[in-house]
Design brief:
single chain; alpha/beta; FAD/NAD(P)-binding domain; Enolase-like, domain 1; 3 domains; five-stranded antiparallel beta sheet; 8 helices; about 25% strand; flat; binds flavin-adenine dinucleotide
């Protein structure tokens, strides 16, 4: 391995963990204006307005935060927000942001130019959005150039690895964003996945036999309320022919939501349809989405459910604390069989 200023370092095994960087989209005029990315966030100063190009986790989290700090914010996204989350979560987050005053423009940014001491973003549909500062959060690019063209890559430019995090070259491993993130194929990047992959790559480099399994790795968007998911999405289940038997409950079915005046959100559970007929305990849990207060904590119950192959009946047997948002986990399980809005507190 060639290292700047250090010559060549030799090792029997190598782990590539060079991460990713912000993608710079091909937008006319972008090279002629000042724009920010997450790498320059703290150079942003105190603008009165910010336009975000991109609708992923980084844009959504920062737009909400800045808006709450009194900055007028707009998001220009060519598809739905949070496209790696389920449609229901995307719609929910768009409503939350709009209610708070964030402008959400669902259109492709095709040109940017200087205007009024700030910038103007033009969309394919002819919308013009003006802001003092421009923030580009249009995805990530894996830093796979460090591999010097010697390793096989995935279509998104990440280094192709197997479950043991081995690359196409014996003795060379890759982990984290550069190895395709959570699913090892790009799209969703997360610290927890990168850290686990790093451990597995290191253990295997030293002769171990560990495998990475993304099935039970939670992904969280840290908005308020947060959006957390784990396992397989309804779309993936349908696209792969498995089908999905799903149920969702609004978070306001539980008293804790009313008591805390945080009634906005939902929990959705996806199950494998064919598993309903083989057990009295109902279907096997394939995945879940929690868009609600404490979602980043609640999602771990579903991570365990997916990892251990738990069924809806296992969740329905919970005796959750009252009042707590955890009650909604059980309510979501009961929603497969009942109208939970008609249940009184703690009943079932
Ligand atoms: C704004 C933002 C917010 C995020 N928030 C969350 C969150 O809340 N939760 C979460 O789970 N994830 C979050 N993520 C994702 C998370 O940060 C990444 O998935 C994680 O850091 C990836 O770890 P990594 O070790 O693969 O890469 P990195 O943490 O990017 O580390 C790569 C390192 O390699 C170095 N490097 C690169 N090229 C070379 C080279 N040629 N030679 C030597 N060194 C090199 C880099 O300088 C860097 O130090 C966020 C990402 C962004 C951009």
């Amino acid at each position: 391995m060639k290292v700047e200023g250090r010559g060549v370092l030799e090792g029997k095994r190598v782990v590539v963990a060079t991460g990713s960087r912000p993608a710079v989209p091909n937008i006319k005029g972008l090279g002629e204006v000042v724009y920010y990315t997450n790498e320059k966030l703290f150079d942003l100063g105190e603008p009165s307005s910010v336009a975000f190009v991109g609708g992923g986790a980084v844009a959504v989290e920062l737009a909400q935060a800045l808006n709450r700090l009194g900055v007028k914010t707009a998001i220009v996204a060519r598809g739905r927000l949070l496209k790696y989350e389920e449609e229901m979560a995307s719609q929910f987050m768009e409503e939350v942001l709009k209610e708070e005053g964030v402008e959400v423009v669902r259109d492709e940014a095709v040109a940017v130019r200087r205007a009024d001491g700030g910038v103007e973003v033009e969309t394919r549909g002819g919308r013009r959005i003006r802001a003092e500062a421009l923030f580009v959060a249009a995805g990530r690019v894996p830093n796979s150039e460090a591999a010097g063209g010697l390793l096989e890559l995935n279509s998104d430019g990440s280094i192709r690895v197997n479950k043991r995090l081995e690359t196409s070259m014996p003795g060379v491993y890759a982990a984290g964003d550069v190895a395709g993130g959570v699913w090892l194929r790009g799209g969703r990047y997360a610290e927890n996945a990168a850290a686990r992959q790093g451990t597995i790559a290191a253990v295997n480099a030293l002769g171990g036999h560990e495998e990475y399994n993304p099935a039970a790795v939670p992904r969280v968007v840290f908005t308020d309320p947060p959006v957390a998911s784990v396992g397989i999405s309804e779309d993936e289940m349908i696209a792969s022919g498995i089908g999905c038997r799903c149920a969702a409950v609004p978070i306001d079915v539980v008293a804790a939501a009313w008591a805390s005046k945080r009634t906005s959100g939902f929990i959705k559970i996806n199950t494998y349809p064919e598993t309903w007929w083989v057990s009295m305990k109902g279907g096997k849990i394939a995945g879940a989405v929690v868009a609600a207060p404490h979602a980043e904590e609640l999602i771990h119950v579903f991570a365990i459910a997916v990892k251990l192959g738990l069924r809806i009946g296992d969740l329905a047997e919970l005796v959750p604390a009252f009042p707590s948002f955890g009650e909604a986990l059980r309510a979501a399980a009961l929603a497969f069989e009942k109208d939970v809005s008609k249940l009184s507190c703690c009943a079932g």
